[in-house]
Amino acid sequence: MRVSSIGGRNGTDEKPESTPEQSGFVSSVDTAQNGGNPSGKDLFGHPPQEKPATAENASEDDGTHSKKPQAGFSAPPSALFREGMSRVVSAVHIIVTDGPAGRAGFTATAVTAVADTPPTLLVCANASGRTAQALLANKRFSVNTLAGKDKTLAEAFASGRDAQHRFAHGAWVTWPTGTPRLATALTAFDCTLLEARLFTSHHLIIGEVMDVALAREERAEALLYWRRLYKKLTR
Predict the structure, then answer these.
(1) Does residue 155 contact residue 29 with C-beta atoms inside 8 Å?
(2) Residue 123 and residue 136: Cα distance in Å, rounded?
(3) Is the separation of the CB atoms in 77 and 54 below 8 Å?
(4) How far apart are CA 232 and CA 152, in angstroms?
(5) Between the CA of residue 46 and those of 43, 82, 85, 176, what are the distances in Å?
(6) From CA 73, how far away is CA 128, in angstroms rounded?
(7) Which residue has the higher pLDDT, 9 or 107?
(8) Please, what is the Cα angle at 67 between 62 and 71, to 5 degrees?
(9) What does the pLDDT look like over 148-166, one tens digit per residue?
(10) Which of 82, 110, 126, 174 holds its CA 20 to 30 A away from the CA of 135?
């Protein structure tokens, strides 16, 4: 693995992927409403509730919501889980791939490091999405962490539009491997697919990092997703 500095071509035609509400990742954004999220849907694609699912059993004295465990320790309602996850601050990434199966990409928050020897990342991708299928076939992908100014790009890749529309946004270059990367990303990782496991509705994708690019602008703002809205983090 080597580290380099971050500096496109337009995308090619592809079939539309599922909408962000179906894909299980960040919802599309309309800056005119809700501080940038017209639907107010969470990263699982569900609409917000007036109160958490178990509000009738919750205490708001300390600003938290909880539910007393039931006999048998059954799992909490999915709506309560989604509400809890909406309060986890996440970096925003664009996952892209290119190869024999074509170019594709989507906006994601479900990204995490696995290990540093060898350097590996895990990405969760909806199994029914166009990008997941292309990524598995191409066996290569990049993870591009967005700067605060790239909110419009996050919106485009969270939309239900095709690849030509998505890649018309942003400045795209390529690694020597041929994988696209975003020139304005805070950091970008060129990955080779190591393993993919299907769990319920999503593929758990593990990639070995072959190259890393870092932004030249060290004081750039980061784009975050919190409580169903995009936010900027200033260093």
Answers:
(1) yes
(2) 12
(3) yes
(4) 13
(5) 8, 8, 12, 39
(6) 32
(7) 107
(8) 150
(9) 999 999 999 998 888 888 9
(10) 82
pTM: 0.71
Angle at 134 between CA 165 and CA 173, to 5 degrees: 55
Grouping H, G, I as helix, E, B as strand and the rest as coil, residue 103 is coil
SS3 content of the chain, % helix, strand, coil (to 5): 15, 35, 50
Number of separate helices (H) and strands (E) present in the chain: 5, 13
How deeply is 188 buried, as exposed, middle or buried, from its count of CB atoms within 10 A (0-12, 13-18, 19+)? buried
Residues 6+ apart with CB under 8 A from 34: 40, 228, 229
The amino acid sitting at 40 is: G
What gap in Å lies between CA 123 and CA 108, rounded to an integer? 8
**The pair of three-digit structure tokens given for residue 216, joined into one six-digit string:** 């030249």
Q: What would the pLDDT profile of 155-202 be if each residue is shown by its tens digit?
A: 999 988 888 889 999 899 999 999 999 999 999 999 999 999 999 999
